[in-house]
Amino acid sequence: MPQHKISDIKVGIIGAGLMGRWHAHASNRLDARLVAITDQDPIAARSLSKRFQKASTYPDITRLLETSSIDVLHICTPPASHTDLIYRALNSGIHVLVEKPVTPTATETEKLLSLAEQQGVILCPVHQFVFQRGVVDALHALAGLGEVLRVSFRTHSAGAEGMDQKMADGVIADILPHPLSVLQVLFPGCLARSSDWQPIRVRTGELQLTGKIDGMGINIDISMNARPTRCEMDVACSRGRIYLNFFHGYSVVEKGTVSRWQKVIQPLRYSSKEWIVATGNLMTRLINNEPAYPGLRTLIGEFYQSIQEGSESPVSPGDVQELAELRDRLIDR
């Protein structure tokens, strides 16, 4: 595979909406060459082009592939469109970074991963949470906290406002890769060993999932209605806990034993510790010009580096497929 400098990598983005803008922002900060933007809305495409390097704009992927030479395609379109777009890009020898989920089904994902391998290119999903500093810190802290007893993920999202039940359930299904990808990193190989999943759906836009992995209880709570918006995980262990905030990309480790004094001071001690961690995290993000989606730029940077070095994808094909298969099982229940 030819070697590239990141500044030599020619990037195309399809989908000039919210995520397309943040992909363009990250790509620009990494000094890649954003040369093509595709969107059905020509005004949106031109607007994004003006903000970032004045890339050429195209109405669809056909025109893009016919008239532009790119190394990488960022796919930031609705999930139903992913399969065809990925297939066409891979067949053109183009590396693909695609917003979650990769495709609507595990069967389609498996076929496209196989095609990517045949073509000698990378197909990588945007699982940006696992590239946040907070997840890295949590992974390092786990060994000192004893036995992991329960993992709880909670998100309150505004992404389904005004939608009917079918559309809201679709948004929930699109969110599922977030907690599943973090579980994969904290507990490698765990998804294939998970069992006893039970869903609870109390109303439109609400889903609770419970399951177990190697003696750990797992709870995933996704709400399209609860406010304020949040996205977080709590890992409860026999000698402490880890709180992860995914909207901001930090984690707080809290060690403790059973004592009256610990019980008295815990609220003050934890609150002060989180304030220090959150403030430091915010300052770091401001310095690094990372106003939103922490972990995204790191993931994109590692993806570009994989292309540059001819190395493996930052998210392994095995993990991609394992997650897709469990997601299918959970949303079919």
General description of the model:
The chain is an alpha/beta fold. The chain has 2 domains: about 5-125 and about 295-330, Rossmann fold, CATH 3.40.50.720; about 135-285, Dihydrodipicolinate Reductase, domain 2. It is about 45% helix and about 25% strand. The chain has helices at about 20-30, 40-50, 60-65, 80-90, 105-120, 135-140, 165-175, 175-185, 190-195, 260-285, 295-310, 315-330, and strands at about 10-15, 35-40, 55-60, 70-75, 95-100, 125, 150-155, 195-200, 205-215, 215-225, 230-235, 240-245, 250-255. The strands form 2 sheets. It has a 7-stranded mixed sheet with strand order 8-9-10-7-11-12-13. A 6-stranded parallel sheet has the order 3-2-1-4-5-6, sandwiched between helices. Helix 5 links the parallel strand 5 (about 95-100) and strand 6. Helix 4 packs parallel to helix 5 (about 105-120), helix 5 (about 105-120) runs antiparallel to helix 12 and helix 8 (about 175-185) packs across helix 12. The longest helix is centred in the last third of the chain and has 28 residues, at about 260-285. The mean pLDDT is about 95.
Number of domains: 2
- The structural class is alpha/beta
Integer average pLDDT: 95
Portion of residues in helices? 40-55%
Instruction: Write down the Rg.
Output: 21 Å
**CATH architecture level-2 label of the largest domain:** 3-Layer(aba) Sandwich
User: What can be said about the biggest beta sheet?
Assistant: 7 strands, mixed
**Treating each run of at least 4 consecutive H or I residues as one helix, how many helices?**
12
Q: What is the CATH top level name of the largest domain?
A: Alpha Beta
**SSE string:** EHEHEHEHEHEHEHHHEEEEEEHHH
User: Widest sheet: strand order?
Assistant: 8-9-10-7-11-12-13
How many E-type strands? Answer: 13
Per CATH, the superfamily of the largest domain is NAD(P)-binding Rossmann-like Domain
CATH-defined fold name of the largest domain: Rossmann fold
- What percent strand? 15-25%
The outline comes out as globular
Q: How far is the first residue's CA from the last residue's CA?
A: 43 Å
Q: Which blocks of ≥5 consecutive residues have pLDDT under 50?
A: none
